[in-house]
Amino acid sequence: MRAPADERVIELAPSVLPCDFGRLGEELAALERAGVDRIHWDVMDGLFVPNITIGAPVIASCRRYSSLPYEVHLMIVDPERYVREFVDAGCELITVHAEATRHLHRTLSLIKSLGVRAGVALNPATPLTSVEYVMDQVDVLMIMSVNPGFGGQHYIEAMDAKIMAAVALREATNPNTKIEVDGGISEETLAGCVMNGAEILVSGSGLMAHRDHLAQAVANFHQLARDALV
Ligand SMILES: O=C(CO)[C@@H](O)[C@H](O)COP(=O)(O)O
Ligand SMILES: [Co+2]
């Protein structure tokens, strides 16, 4: 008997990190025209990760340039301090690092109390057991496939097993949780992520390497994802 068709819908979420921050509005509009599914904002504070990027005011000022869902990846310490600001800036998914907040359950409850989706990101070395008792609160579980703080890094292949284990944890605790993978995703690594169970793919340098023919690249990424589901 054939296995049930894999009916996952794979979403492509480009990271804003490789964009020209002096032309963000135009870059966002171009990404939407090219057919991406959502926009992934990487917020870094120079403490949780070495780099500093942008804050909520920049996202708020860019809200009018795209109708796509905005998700924010908070690579900041004590993210609970700023959750409301990013919701007000127009983000529908707020993802915090389990390693960056002292009271993860409380932080997730705060995010959901504001009427948006709550995500948890795990650094490559952080075990899935750190979220097993909060999965009922987790709308998106994001597996970092690079060490956070930089774009353009290589996919960490040891995360293949972690993605599969994340799927098993989701099935055992909260079937509504989506699995996202962030870091080093390109034509070369995308299919493996999907085969392992990823549903939302974050790509920065891998996708923007094709900025001169973005629509064709997005179509190719989507086709590779569909082919990996068969
Ligand atoms: O959060 C991060 C890095 O900390 C990611 O979102 C990267 O920004 C994705 O960029 P690539 O690895 O695809 O270049
Ligand atoms: Co990110």
What does this structure look like?
This protein has 230 residues and is of the alpha/beta class. The chain has a single domain (11-229), classed as TIM Barrel, CATH 3.20.20. The protein has 8 helices and 8 strands, in the order βαβαβαβαββαβαβαα. Strands 1-8-7-6-5-4-3-2 form an 8-stranded parallel beta sheet. α1 (24-34) crosses α8 (214-229) and α6 packs parallel to α8. The protein is globular. It starts with 10 loop residues before the first strand and ends with a helix. The model has no long low-confidence stretch (mean pLDDT 97). The structure holds 5-O-phosphono-D-xylulose (5SP) and cobalt (II) ion. 5-O-phosphono-D-xylulose (5SP) binds next to β2, β3, β8 and α7. The active site is at 42 (proton acceptor), 182 (proton donor).
Oligomer: single chain
Domains (count): 1
H/E element sequence: EHEHEHEHEEHEHEHH
Bound small molecules, by name, code or SMILES, are: 5-O-phosphono-D-xylulose, cobalt (II) ion
The CATH topology is TIM Barrel
- Helix residue percentage: 25-40%
Largest sheet: 8 strands, parallel
Low-confidence parts lasting 5 or more residues at pLDDT below 50? none
User: Could you tell me the radius of gyration in angstroms?
Assistant: 16 Å
Backbone structural class: alpha/beta
End-to-end Cα distance? 15 Å
Percentage of residues in strands: 15-25%
Shape: globular
Mean pLDDT: 97
CATH class: Alpha Beta
Strand count:
8
Cross-sheet strand order for the largest sheet? 1-8-7-6-5-4-3-2
CATH architecture grouping: Alpha-Beta Barrel
Enzyme class: isomerase
Function: Catalyzes the reversible epimerization of D-ribulose 5-phosphate to D-xylulose 5-phosphate.
InterPro entries: Aldolase_TIM, Ribul_P_3_epim, Ribul_P_3_epim-like, RibuloseP-bd_barrel
Keywords: Carbohydrate metabolism, Cobalt, Isomerase, Manganese, Metal-binding, Zinc
